[in-house]
Amino acid sequence: MIATSIKWTRHNLFGKPFDVALSLLVIPGALWLAYSILDWALTTARWDIIVQSLRVLMIGVFPADQAWRAWTASAIIAAILGAGLGCVFSFKPHHGLVLALVPLLMLIADHGDPQNALSAAGVVAATSLGWVLTSYLPLSRKAMPAAAFTGFIVVVAVMAPPGVGLWGGLLLSVLITLVTSVLSLPIGILLAFGRQSRLSSLRIICTWYIEVMRSVPLILVVYWIWILMPVLAPQWGLADVARGMIGFTIFYSAYVAEYVRSGLQAVPRAQTEAARSLGISEFDINRSIVLPQALRVVVAPLVGNVLDIFNSAPLVFIIGLTDFLRAGQMILANPQYGDRTFEVLSFLLVTYFLVGSMITYAARKLEDHMATSAR
Fold first, then answer.
1. Which domain, by its residues, includes 34?
2. Percentage of residues of the chain with pLDDT beyond 70
3. Domain shared by 283 and 354, yes or no
4. Residue 89 backbone phi and psi in degrees, to 5
5. How confident is the model at residue 47, as a pLDDT?
């Protein structure tokens, strides 16, 4: 192993004179930067603000006495996500060990207070249960769509009593990401097929919609939906959260449509022509032959779209919602914590990085799974 490491280092870092100069410049700088960050994090930073403000960061201004609702909703969402992971790659013991670090870290951060740690352990257990279920019971995967739909309804029912407008924190950012990702995919697929339709009117409408959405900023779409929905449909009385999710879905559906359209164009035309010659209907051709191959091609862009949604969730501040980033700003607005800017922003940075890394890791496993299935 040592010989392999030396060979890799010589080949990749010191193979050419320019590589040698660049390595001697970058490596010491990177080591110094890493040492400085660790030294600040372990000796100077005061992380007690994160412990004291964890509830605000996780669930925003949601009532403290109703926090059990947020933990219940988190467990349901975690079970759905775990079941989704089980459809892609099997649960292994080291996955459980990594998940077990979450309640352990919360126990350490709360100085031995088991309340939040036990709640986090419940979320981890729900994730593991869903993951194991779909990993080792393939028949359970057929119930995934119905179970996920039911789960989201239960989440809304559990979280709604204190008031939908009180949803916030990281939980709100995750909900916006999940709802937008799930709804924008079928809408985007329909738009992609509509843009390639032989019906000129349908093709023009879909093309117009896609181009308009891709030509305006997301914040404008969210703001206009927030303003127009009470005017166009006052009888519905939609909450700000619902209007924000509608704006996100309308916007990102156009991008999904373009990703799917690029995948549709990658499917060899000979396959569709052969299917038509066999008398297969256009609907069956698109559903069974074209679409599976197209989605396999555009997995990476679609996952990138999910990351964009999560990173764009802070834009809901414009309609008065308290997302994860806005919760951090609320904490720093308190004069008592005015000197803790670096600690709060570092926690936000690490959390966004970890969530993005998990999504990327799952995407790579999904690509490997789909590539194996295609062989």
1. 2-44
2. 93
3. yes
4. -150, 150
5. 81
CA angle, corner 139, sides to 138 and 145, nearest 5?
Answer: 100
Q: How many domains does the chain have?
A: 3
R_g over Cα of the chain? 24
What is the model's pLDDT at position 211?
A: 92
Q: Which of 297, 345, 325 is nearest to 172 (CA)?
A: 325
Same domain, 58 and 144: no
Q: What is the pLDDT of residues 112-168, one digit of tens each?
A: 557 767 777 888 888 888 888 888 888 888 888 888 888 888 988 888 888 887 888
- CA-CA distances (angstroms) from residue 70 to 14, 30, 142, 170, 315? 52, 40, 28, 11, 22
Give how far Cα 217 sits from Cα of 34, 157, 214, 224, Å: 36, 32, 8, 11
> Tokens for 61?
């201004």
The pLDDT of residue 91 is: 80
CA distance 30 to 16: 20
Query: Of 161, 190, 218, which marks where a domain is finished?
Result: 161
For every residue of 291-358, DSSP letters joined together read: HHHHHHHTHHHHHHHHHHHHHHGGGGGGGT-EEHHHHHHHHHHSGGGTT-HHHHHHHHHHHHHHHHHH
In tens, the pLDDT along 18-60 reads 777 877 888 888 889 888 888 888 888 888 888 788 888 888 8
| Same domain flag for 215 and 300 | yes
Token digits of residue 283: 């609907």
Q: Which residue, 109, 93, 103, is CA-closest to 124?
A: 103
174, 157: one domain? no
| Stretch 199-225: mean pLDDT | 91
Structure tokens at 93: 């013991």
Residue type, 323: D
Query: pTM (2 decimals)?
Result: 0.86
The dihedral formed by the CA atoms of 213, 217, 220 and 225, expressed in degrees to the nearest 10: 30
C-alpha 200/C-alpha 241 separation (Å) is: 36
Mark whether 136 and 236 lie in a shared domain.
Answer: no
